[in-house]
Each structure stands twice: as C-alpha cells, then as structure tokens.
C-alpha cells in the first residue's frame, strides 16, 4: 500500500491509497474530510487507511496525482553523498574546504527548501531561474516525518538547483535552492516498513530533450553517508514541525559540469519501491 493525494475529474482533491494497482479514495462524510495528513500522522497509517478506504476502485489514469503534502514544510540535506561533495567542491573552488568539512562533520548541512504550497506534483512544471546559466535537477529520496519526528514513509523528491549561483558564493545558497517551482515531490508515499533495504533501493535520473535522452545516471541509497535517523534528529534539534515535515536526503546523481537544463526538458526520477516522478522544465 502507498498513500497519495489525487484530484478527480470533478476537480475535487482527495486523500487516497494505492493498493494492487488501483486507487482507493478516503471518504468524505459527516465527520469531515480525511486529508492525507490524517493518515500520515495516525498511530498506524496503514491500518487507518484500510479501515477508511472506499470499496470502489479507480484506475491510476482516472485521477491526477498531486504532490503528497498538505501543510508540511520541505527541508533538504546537502553533501550526504561523496559524489555530491566532489561536485560542490568543483562548482565553488574557494569554498571547497567547507564542503569537505561538512561531509565528514557530525552536524549535517540542512536548509529550508519549500512550503507545501510551493511544491510541484507529478506532471507539473519545475523551473530554472532566468538569472542562472547552470541549472540541474537533484534526484533525492525524501523522508516523510510526523510532528513527533517519526519516520512515516518515503517519496521521491527533485531538488532543483542553480549551481552557478551557489558556486559564485555559498551564501547565495537560498537563492540557488529556494524559488518558485524549485521543488517537486511524488507520486506517492511508500510507508516506512515497505521500502526495500538501502542497498536494494536504486535512484535513477533520466533527462530527455527533443525525444532523446541527454543524461542517464544512477546511484543507490546505501551510498549515502548519513542515516535517516541521524538526519531526522538533527532536523528536530530546537525546531518543531506541528504539521510534519518532508526531508530531502541529498543527491548522489550529478550530471556532468558541462550540462545544464533547458526549457522543455523532461525529468524522470525513479526510486525502487516508490515509482517515478516526472516533471517538465519551464
């Protein structure tokens, strides 16, 4: 079972579950609408979803999948893979030492990525900044976290980045990472106990341009230096999340330095046990 958020042909938005290839909607009744966070933040999300889901089965093509967030903040961790550390050092030679230090330091790099309303869902547009000349997607496993800092599940994240802006000066990181349509999530949330072990979870990035694949690369979650629990504990130090949070865990797939995204590119991110997130660049 996966949990998701969908829009019906009528325009109505509903929480739902993906079960055996079918979409099962959560009810809307006299007790009120059951939003996705009601399921995610329950003591037993799987059990509650099974109790609530409608008997009717819809095909996935009969609905539009939305970003699986309600009011959660989206945060991100950086330099958690060796590949990312090396890329960050190349893009910002003057600050290379700092990226090396943060890769090995006890304290991770954490930064705010997006409020829920700024997140793009499957099939929606992601943007490259007009004032950037070197933009890339960053495919990442995303942790879905409850207000009690419990790991609920996983989804796919795209941390769009302007590498030239950050490389010019690390203090420009917020502008390189935080702007309209700079984050995408989806298509669904795999509950924590259902994801395969890290050495079996592959992350693949494919970028298509004009019907041709211009980049194809991958890694495994087991290449990540830090653990999920470690990142969650640091995120929760001195910071509360009354609506829960989503934490992007860093990227280990970096296109070559001479590659930059172009308008019209199609980005596919596949993660084992979750599915595929696809977005078009605007």
Which helices and strands appear, and what pairs or packs with what?
Elements (H helix, E strand, L loop, with lengths): L1 E6 L5 E7 L2 E4 L2 E2 L2 E2 L2 H5 L4 H8 L11 E2 L7 E6 L3 H10 L4 H9 L4 E6 L10 E2 L8 E2 L2 E7 L5 E9 L1 E2 H6 L4 H5 L5 E9 L10 E8 L2 E9 L7 H8 L9 E4 L17 E6 L3 E7 L1
Parallel strand pairs: 7-17, 9-19
Antiparallel strand pairs: 1-2, 1-6, 1-14, 2-3, 4-5, 7-8, 10-13, 11-12, 11-17, 12-14, 15-16, 15-18, 18-19
Order of helices and strands: EEEEEHHEEHHEEEEEEHHEEEHEEE
Q: Predict the CATH topology of the largest domain.
A: Fumarylacetoacetate hydrolase, domain 2
> How far apart are the termini?
33 Å
CATH homologous superfamily of the largest domain, by name?
Fumarylacetoacetase-like, C-terminal domain
Whole-number count of domains = 2
List the uncertain runs.
none
**Rg, Cα atoms, Å:** 18 Å
Can you tell me the CATH architecture of the largest domain? Alpha-Beta Complex
Percent of residues in helices comes to 10-25%
Envelope shape:
globular
- Our count of helices gives 7
DSSP strand tally: 19
Query: What is the chains' assembly state?
Result: single chain
């Amino acid at each position: 079972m996966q949990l998701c958020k969908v829009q019906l042909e009528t325009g109505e938005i509903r929480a739902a579950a993906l079960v055996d290839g079918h979409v099962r909607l959560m009810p809307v009744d006299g007790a009120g609408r059951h939003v996705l966070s009601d399921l995610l933040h329950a003591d037993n999300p799987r059990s509650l979803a099974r109790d609530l889901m409608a008997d009717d089965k819809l095909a996935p093509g009969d609905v539009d999948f939305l970003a699986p967030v309600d009011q959660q903040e989206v945060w991100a961790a950086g330099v958690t893979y060796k590949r990312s550390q090396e890329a960050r050092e190349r893009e910002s030679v003057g600050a290379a030492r700092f990226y090396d230090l943060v890769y090995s330091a006890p304290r991770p790099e954490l930064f705010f990525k997006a409020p829920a309303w700024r997140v793009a869902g499957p099939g929606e547009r992601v943007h490259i900044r007009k004032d950037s000349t070197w933009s890339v997607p960053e495919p990442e496993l995303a942790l879905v976290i409850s207000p009690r800092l419990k790991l609920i599940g996983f989804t796919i994240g795209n941390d769009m980045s302007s590498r030239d802006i950050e490389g010019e000066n690390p203090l420009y990181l917020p502008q390189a990472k935080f702007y309209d349509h700079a984050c995408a999530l989806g298509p669904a949330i795999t509950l924590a106990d259902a994801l395969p072990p890290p050495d079996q979870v592959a992350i693949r990035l494919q970028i298509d341009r004009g019907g041709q694949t211009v980049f194809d690369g991958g890694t495994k979650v087991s290449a990540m230096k830090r653990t999920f629990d470690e990142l969650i504990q640091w995120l929760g130090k001195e910071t509360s999340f009354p609506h829960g949070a989503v934490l992007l865990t860093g990227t280990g797939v970096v296109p070559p330095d001479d590659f930059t995204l172009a308008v019209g590119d199609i980005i596919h991110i596949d993660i084992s046990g979750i599915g595929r997130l696809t977005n078009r660049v605007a």
